[in-house]
Amino acid sequence: MSPILLTGPAAEPLSLEEAKTFLRVEHGDDDELIGALIAGARMHVEGQARLGLITQHWRMVFDCWPHHGRIAVKPGPLRSLNAVRVYDLQSHPQSVDTQAFVPDFGASTLAFMPWALPAPGRNAAGIEIDVTIGFGDGANDVPEPLRQALRLLVAHWYENRGLVGAANSTAILPASLAALVAPYRLLSL
Asked: Per residue in 159-170, is it b (16+ CB within 10 Å) or e — as a string?
């Protein structure tokens, strides 16, 4: 499976004002830097947790239907199934009824009967599934432990802006960051 980001989040889960308050920064000289750190921290936490924090649209691409009839949606959490396409031998897309899939929002999976779906005609990337993921559209929809992880990461990067060597202790991320993200992390089996 190759996930492709179609539409990123419309906002960040941590505002510039919230970050500046946490950092105790009262001037506007570093606003651009802090904004970039917020975006970087979001991407880092999303990558570690395999989650989208704010609503995003993704495309998952498969060569064939899994025989066991389940697709884990990663990144998650799954919010909706938007479209399913299967490509024929001439690489023309054929829409598949989304009602053939049962979304499990808690487990961030799609269940289906593989024998009831059309087989792709091309050998590679014959199936595309478009989904919406994320906790919601606003910062308040994101669980507070993940927002706290963002604050800690932004603060760490803000205080340690220079290049650091592997032997330098500032290169190590705060241990509390992993502890805040761990309960939300989608695991691979």
From this structure: eeeeeeeeeeee
Q: Which residue has the tokens 């060597």?
A: 165
Across the beta sheet with 127-133, the strand order is: 2-7, 56-62, 127-133, 78-87, 93-96
DSSP output for 120-186 = PSSSSS-EEEEEEESS-SSGGGS-HHHHHHHHHHHHHHHH--S---TTSGGGSPPHHHHHHHGGGPP
| 88-110 pLDDT, tens digit each | 999 999 999 999 999 999 999 99
* Interacting residues of 104 by C-beta distance below 8 A, sequence separation 6+: 78, 110, 111
186: which 2 tokens?
A: 């989608």
Q: Name the pTM for this structure.
A: 0.86
Instruction: Give the bridge partners for 109, in sequence order.
Output: 72, 104
Give the pair of three-digit tokens for residue 93: 């897309």
The DSSP output letter for 40 is H
**Quick one: pLDDT at residue 176?**
86
Structure tokens at 133: 């993921």
Quickly state the pLDDT bin for 166 (edges 50, 70, 90).
Answer: low
